[in-house]
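Notes taken during the Thursday session

The instructor put the following on the board and asked us to keep it in front of us for the whole hour. The protein is DUF2156 domain-containing protein. We were told not to look anything up and to reason only from what is written here. First, the residues (849 in total):
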Amino acid sequence: MAVAAAGRQSRRMAELVRSGASGAPVSIGALVLIWVLGAATSSLGRPTRYVYRHFAAGIMPLEHGRVWTTLTSGLFAPSLVGYLVATVLIVVVAAPIEHRIGSARFAGAAVCTQVLGTLVALAVSDAVKLVDEGWGFRLHVGAAVSPTTWIAGVAMVASSGMNTLWRRRLRVGLLALLITLALFSGHLLDMVRLSAAVVGLLLGPWIVGRSARGARLTGTQREGRVLVALVVAASALGPVLAALSPNAVGPLAVLRDLFRGAGWTPDEVREFCAQSSSSEECRRGLLGLRLGGVGPTLLSLMPSVFLLVLADGLRRGRRFAWIAAVVAQVILLALSLANFGVRFIGFVGKESIFYGLDSPNLYRTMTPFLTPLAILVVLVATRGFFTVSAPRGTYRRLWLLVVGVVAGLGVVYVTGAWLARAGFDREPGVGSLLADYPQRLIPPVYLQWLDPQFLPDNAATTLLFEWTGVLFWIVVCVAVWMTFHAPAHGVATDDTERARGLLRASSGSPLSWMTTWRGNRYWFSPDGTGYVAYRVIAGVALTTGDPVGPRDRLRENVTGFAEFATGNGWIPCFYSVTGELREVTDGIGWAGIQVAEETVLRLDGLAFTGKKFQDVRTALNRAKKAGVHAEWISFPTAPLAITDQITAISEEWVADKGMPEMGFTLGGLDEIDDPEVRCLIAVDAERTVHGITSWMPVYRDGEIVGWTLDFMRRRSEGFRPAMEFLIASAALLLEEEGAEFVSLSGAPLAKVEDPAGASITEEEERERTALGVVMDKVLDVLGRTLEPVYGFRSLLAFKSKFQPEYVPMHMTFADPGALPSIGNAIGRAYLPEVSIGQGMRLVRTMIRS
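Then, after some discussion, the predicted structure tokens were revealed:
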């Protein structure tokens, strides 16, 4: 099945490339021209002197009047690998973009970004020598040829018309990569590529226009994690580029020296040291041997690999990954400060050769501060994104594993090295080996101020000396990566699993599955048969729906939780609860008000017939004609091609609001990423997703009797009646499965008006006047003002198309005097993090409305 799915995806990708290439005459023509020119000038292997003199871009060619090089430099590549890479990028990137935006716009974008990007890069390169003479000289005499410049440029141009998700990811990912290349590699070509991308970013709205979803940067927490992970990953790749690029000249290329060993053999170093063990030649030779070779280079790169692992954890929202990344950046910043101190303050003494492979330069010594400092600022600013904890005991087991690996490798290293002690230049004792062992686990670039006491002199001792640390870091990276794959539902994951088990075996309300969402804490009844999910906000213990458990113990669970909350100094408040619970709290003297209206469809004999279901039948008929069908999926196991589309649709919806996604009783992508939540998607014959709905199970006495609608998103330019089609299809399909009902959930701050002529008793009127009328009016005003942004009342009106039963949802509380605190807690529960800018946009929207 997996092979078949992979085959379908491969065929789809091949078809996409083929269809893109077939409608891309400019891209394919440029590709042919590039290869023809390369063959005609005999520069397919390496550009000839003739090509560099007459067609490559650079400051010197421009000074000699060869202005055409700003364009022709994009028609050659610097090597055969460069030609092959350009071919792949043109077919996979450029051709589909041309097919999307049109050949005329594509040609204009390619020429503009190539020419203007080159001119900007040359101007910047000419100014660089004012702050870095060495780098400026390399840029001044450098030459650049590569089609990747205009490919990067048109990609950034095309991003202006992309949907929110891919516009954001493409821009952050590409710019992070190009900035990293410019800072570490630093060649003129890197500067031209970066400049072409920036020019494309600025010209995009003029060439292809803006996306229909606008340029708002608001995104979900999930997407924020992805963007932060991209930035951290790009920063981790920088030292790798420095280590593997022998010709790196950028301002951060100083880090390249940390990985470069001296070109001396152990015999030559011994000869130096025999003459004078304290001479600079001896110490440099020892340092070079420590840094040279495959093992030391890999060990020095392991922190970068570890950061890449942490980037995956950040993408998953893991709190441990955030803490570890912060610690790593603080360490890197401290090392940069130590480097500065050694070179310019003299912490270690004049005779030290710490970081001393190149002559000290104040500018280049301070530059490495910038990367860890910038990443640290990003991590601290986005700390609220990373709230996912692993199951209890996960990191205790991780630390035990690390300690065990350290101990085990220590025994192997000390025992093996002592047995092979004759294979060192100086025969070590057990004490020396024990003292040296910690250094074997630390990347050698961080130990340059320490002189090695002994060095390996044969294959066996070299294996122990250089590869023990590599093995340790590999185990640590794999172990940490595995912790990010451990299931996690919330801060108290074990409690969440216990709550899920009780919910499956017992009974709850239609909203009870929301009690398993991240952010909730749990109170369990003394007999262990029920629980209440709650969160404490501003001193208010705010629940999510009814208590879960046997319905005949509802009163005991309410009073038990209330006593628990008040005992902790919290104000208990049951939110979005059923009328059954309202009766219980009324019986113990609590007050309550209606806060929402649940809509329920009974499935027994459901048939969308008659005039009142006209809109629903129209949606079903139009879907059939358009080739759109409904399909059940599980988001965690769905193909990437489907989940990416769903993510893009959701990000567009959030960006269109200009405000963050609401939480609490409103689920998002994190909540549908649950194997027990079913998703129904509307897809066409080309596997394009037009809409999605998610359905949460409703349990009664351990059996699923119904399903509750939660997540609803529709593609902005897709099949318009997708929601009507999906809800109707879900109802019909679930009826066939034997479900009793589906709940279309409640719309917060929205309710059906009292029917005309409805009467209430004098006692009810007095109660409303004394306790509820003020809060009722506040909620009514809040619902009206938020309507232009979140559309809760429009949502309730939309659900009326299905002729549902309306079931009031209530909020009950013990102390009416605590209503201001309760209202504040509810607002913060739905919108826990609203920035100043988002708050101002919200106020402007409400004023306009």
